[in-house]
Design brief:
2 copies of one chain form a homodimer.
Chain A: H1 6-11, H2 32-38, H3 43-48, H4 50-64, E1 69-70, H5 77-81, E2 85-89, E3 93-97, H6 103-108, H7 114-117, H8 119-132, E4 138-143, H9 145-154, H10 162-170, H11 172-196, E5 200-205, H12 213-219, H13 221-234, E6 240-244, H14 251-255, E7 261-263, H15 270-277, E8 282-287, H16 296-310, E9 319-323, H17 333-346
Chain lengths: ~350, ~350
């Protein structure tokens, strides 16, 4: 049914003619076409207006030729749906009020009806699927519980996660109660996204690397596993990608959540990751996003290196080319276009 | 000659009766005694006034009972000595002017006479050694070339290192020219610190984890090796610690610089690091600094875990207990004191 299903085939580790590519934050500020829409509307309104969210979701498919679309939204819509007031000033910072720091604060958070409180995301997915007309798959996503927990407890972004860690270390039961509550919403939310038409799900654990291995095992991984298993129980054919950025020492345990793909930051050579994980999951990544500041020759050389480091494909292997984190707002779109075209061409030799 | 030489013995992997402990930023804002001095003087003036630098350097030795002192200073004194204007507002941010972005900018930077431009650090070391009166060893330090390069090129702190990476990817020769110039000063500077009395040297590569493995191999490691070898050539008995925070995938290559100890962030279980490195270097680290926000029981449990994870000592092993990064300014000093006392007592069972 999909005209280009390479992305899903790679996630399922089925034979592909070449490596598919999409990039995190591909619907974003680096595109003048995105900025034109943002001039007329603020960030959260854009997330909440399905027609506009659909439009910016499809922009990189049409303008850049990526092999997958990802629904335009923000991980913090989950916090908002649970009853927090969320302010996002895209260039400046994030504020959530009130910060969640006591049992009473946790009790006040609701477990919302996803169809009700996050219906606008589901509407945007349905509309995008329709307009995409099966050109490429559509990715749904959520932040992971630990990352959303840090925003809730800190009341915004954070350097050292002081309040989040204080709760974990002084009131671990309370921390788990909040994490469980968030995780329950995430599970419902990602399943509802699949129901609305999302072809794959990515769980973003952006602040994963702030935790020690054991803290990650206690406060992050079990919830990710819960979310992955929630999707798998209802939709066994829908691939799930877990992106626990820079958790390079516990890749194997991330794969053990039952996900189909492990997303990598650029801190590890993808060859090493493949050596550790074998071909039991697909790997997604992992070029340094700042390489897109480089010359065309440098961009091609670095992309070629990622493909070469991943190496030859087998009947069980899967690789989705991506950056190791989001594309930066001041990148020249021509450089992304060049990357996409180069990866499409160059990767064929490894398949 | 030293009354307590455990820190140096651990770095040299000689038998110790227990594990020595110091913590990064131990002379700092969490101590009311430090804040009392800072109320009367700004940060850089404190660095440049040997009597005051000596006083805050010794505070944690007397108040906390740590097994080593580290000279109070800042990594950016090297940038300043090379001709940049450096402003440090401890709670707000760092500004270096002008940012170094062209060949002409690089040419204008000087390779200073360390005795002249950084004489105040050497004076502070001499004075501190005298007043310490051999109670514990004194650590000298420098930022690594890559980290100082990012400050120079960005003109301050940075989130994505856009300008630094642009130079690396578009003008790699120019980047290497700047890195070489900085590295030459670092080598002179750390040797001068030893000459003035420093008993060990630590190289801080604070922003190490912003680089891919290959970029780290090209733009960071060779300069660290140059600095380590500069010390070793002149002072073979003086231990050098390399702290390339969160470079957990290339620990073995860090050890190959010829350093005596590898500093670890808290992102890797120290047992894994020891498995990778064997006992060919001492390991320094690696408790999450935010554990000091925890209850006394939690602090002891986590410290005990680091010691247990490191495991039993052999005739060739070395472990210096430390946090995985600097102690945070809002930590209760009583919690550090508790940690120091606990590590001293608990660690004996592993020796």
């Amino acid at each position: 049914m999909l005209k280009n299903d390479l992305f899903l085939r790679a996630l399922k580790r089925q034979p592909c003619s070449r490596t598919p590519i999409w990039v995190m934050r591909q619907a974003g500020r680096y595109l003048p076409e995105y900025r034109a829409i943002r001039e007329k509307t603020d960030f959260l309104t854009l997330c909440k207006t399905p027609e506009l969210a659909m439009e910016v979701t499809i922009q990189p498919v049409e303008l850049m030729g990526v092999d997958a679309a990802i629904i335009f939204s923000d991980i913090l819509v989950v916090n908002e749906a649970m009853g927090m007031d969320v302010e996002i000033i895209e260039t400046k910072g994030i504020k959530l009020t009130p910060p969640i720091r006591s049992q009473a604060d946790i009790n006040r958070l609701i477990i919302p009806e996803v169809q009700d409180k996050l219906g606008y995301v589901l509407d945007a997915i349905r509309l995008t699927k329709k307009v995409l007309d099966n050109r490429v798959p559509l990715i749904g996503f959520s932040g992971a519980a630990w990352t959303l927990f840090t925003y809730a407890v800190e009341g915004g972004g954070s350097k050292n996660y002081a309040f989040a860690k204080k709760m974990m270390y002084r009131e671990p039961k309370m921390a788990h109660m909040l994490l469980s509550k968030i995780s329950a919403v995430i599970s419902e939310y990602v399943c509802a996204q699949v129901e609305a038409g999302a072809d794959a799900i990515q769980i973003f654990d952006s602040w994963a690397s702030a935790l020690s291995e054991d803290d990650y095992r206690e406060f992050a991984l079990p919830y990710i596993k819960e979310n992955v298993q929630a999707v798998k129980a209802k939709y066994p054919d829908v691939p799930v990608i877990v992106f626990s950025k820079d958790c390079n020492t516990i890749l194997s345990e991330i794969a053990d959540t039952g996900c189909d793909a492990v997303g990598l930051g650029w801190g590890i050579d993808i060859k090493k990751a493949r050596t550790i994980l074998g071909d039991r999951v697909c790997l997604q990544g992992n070029m340094d996003p700042t390489v897109l500041y480089g010359t065309p020759e440098k961009i091609k050389a670095e992309a070629a290196k990622v493909l070469r480091q991943f190496g030859q494909h087998t009947a069980q292997s899967g690789h989705v080319f991506n950056l190791g984190h989001g594309i930066l707002p001041d990148v020249d779109p021509a450089n992304l276009k060049l990357l996409v075209e180069f990866v499409k061409e160059e990767s064929a030799k490894y398949h």
